[in-house]
Amino acid sequence: MNAQKTRPNPQVNGHPQGRSRRILVVEDHDSSRLTMQLLLDIRGHMVETADTGRMALLKAFDFRPEVVLLDLGLPDMTGQAVSQAIREMTNPSPPCIIALTGRAEVLDGKFDHHLLKPADPDELEQLLQNQVASESN
C-alpha cells in the first residue's frame, strides 16, 4: 500500500491560492494518484493519498479531510461503499466527497459531486473554492 502526505505551498508560479483544504485522494493507479497529489499540492492544499478502500478509511479517520476525491473502481471496495463508510465515521460533519470516474454514470446520493477522469485541475479548483464560499454563507 502506498500512502503519502504533502504540505501546502501557499503560492506557486504567481498563482494566487484560495483557502487551503485538507484533501484525501483515493486512487489505485499510481500515476493518476501522484499527479493529482502534485497538482493539489502546487495549489496549496494539504494532501494525503490512499490506494485502497481500506487505506482510505484509515486515512479519513486520522486525517479528517474536508474533501475526498474518490475513484469508484478500487481493488478492494467499491467507491460507493467507501463513501458510505466515510460519511458514517465522520458524522455529523462529513467531508465533501467527489467521485472520480472514467465514464459518465448515474451516481446515488453518496457523492456530493462527480468529475470525469482525467479531472481538469481548474475545474476541480473552482469546485473547491465554490465549496469554501458555500461554507462561509
Protein model, in words:
By secondary structure, the chain is α/β, with parallel strands linked by helices. It has a single domain, classed as Rossmann fold. 36% of the residues lie in helices and 20% in strands. Strands 1-3-2-4-5-6 form a six-stranded mixed beta sheet, with helices on both faces. Helix 1 (30-42) links the parallel strand 2 and strand 3 (46-50). Helix 2 packs parallel to helix 3.
User: Helix/strand/pairing class, anyone?
Assistant: alpha/beta
Rg over alpha carbons: 14 Å
| Overall number of domains | 1
Query: In CATH's first tier, which class applies?
Result: Alpha Beta
Distance between the termini: 39 Å
Layout of SSEs?
Blueprint: E1 5-6, E2 22-26, H1 30-42, E3 46-50, H2 53-63, E4 67-71, H3 79-89, E5 96-101, E6 113-116, H4 121-135
Parallel strand pairs: 2-3, 2-4, 4-5, 5-6
Antiparallel strand pairs: 1-3
Helix pairs in contact: 2-3
The gist of it:
With 137 residues, the protein is an alpha/beta fold. It contains four helices and six strands.
Keywords:
36% helix, single chain, 4 helices, six-stranded mixed β-sheet, 137 residues, disordered N terminus, Rossmann fold
